Amino acid sequence: MKGGGLRIYALLYLLFLYAPILLLPLFAFNSGTIVAFPLKGFTTQWFSDMYGTAALRQALANSLIIAVSAAILATCLGIFAARASTRYKFPFKGGIMGLIMLPLVLPEIIVSVSLLVVLLGIGIPLSIFTVILGHVLICMPYAIAILSTAFNSLDKSLEEAAYDLGETRASAFRLVILPLVMPGIISSLLMSFTISLDEFIIAFFLSGNQPTLPTYIFSQLRFPKQIPMILALGTVLVALSIVLLTIAEYFRRRGNARTGAKSTGGLV
């Protein structure tokens, strides 16, 4: 009886969690302009309207530039921070890592307002560049958490063997360590890209007159006629997320096969 109740609870929870996502394509292909049952008919008009909207294409381009840049920068900085925290001992190590991880627990509204005041105070105009800076700040803790796990699971004897065979620290890091932690690097890139693409508050404060996709969507929610197009956009983003997760899982399995590690159930 207890097991049956737990299954029912799990099913209801999954239904509550994923039902809105499942309804996205249903209403995205609905010819009616009102998001309600019964459905009117099948149409692809909203997707055509989406691709024909210049402002949306520009917002999407801005978001992709920001997300790719933030993912690469946060992951590169995260590699150095994770490597230092897991391999070396240095003064004030705990305090320094705590400061780096602080954006993980700080409310984003506080981070956004603080960045806005500082950037305007030193004379930096609001643009895509300022949004990238903000997104790198909030993506780095996630990147470090993922990469620290990857570096911690690394067999140190492999690195020592590379030194014994004549490799320098730089060449051992490039030829031995990086390939072994590549699944963690890919996971970090994916996580940072997803967080940046989805982030709204920092982009709202720091984007200036260059809106990102979330801020554009927020501005269009005031117009009921734009809702079907936004649902079509959401359907495309869900499909893109599935593709990215599939690619990341492929590289994770490839990395496990290379190092001989056991599979742990895929990306979460």
What does this structure look like?
- The chain is mainly α and 268 residues long.
- The chain has a single domain, classed as MetI-like fold (Orthogonal Bundle).
- The chain contains 12 helices and no strands.
- The protein has helices spanning 2-28, 45-51, 54-87, 93-101, 108-121, 128-152, 156-164, 169-180, 182-198, 201-206, 213-220, 227-259.
- The longest helix has 34 residues, at 54-87.
- Pfam families: BPD_transp_1.
- InterPro entries: Bact_Polyamine_Transport, MetI-like, MetI-like_sf.
- Belongs to the binding-protein-dependent transport system permease family. CysTW subfamily.
CATH class: Mainly Alpha
Count every helix, treating DSSP H or I runs of 4 or more residues as helices.
12
Q: Main sheet?
A: none
Task: Choose one word for the global shape.
Answer: globular
Question: Using only CA atoms, what is the Rg?
Answer: 22 Å
Q: What is the assigned CATH homologous superfamily? A: MetI-like
Structural class: mainly alpha
Topology as a string of helices (H) and strands (E) = HHHHHHHHHHHH
Number of strands: 0
Helix residue percentage: over 70%
Overall pLDDT, averaged? 80
Query: Please, how many domains?
Result: 1
Keywords: Cell membrane, Membrane, Transmembrane, Transmembrane helix, Transport
Main location: membrane
Membrane topology: Multi-pass membrane protein
Organism: Paracoccus pacificus
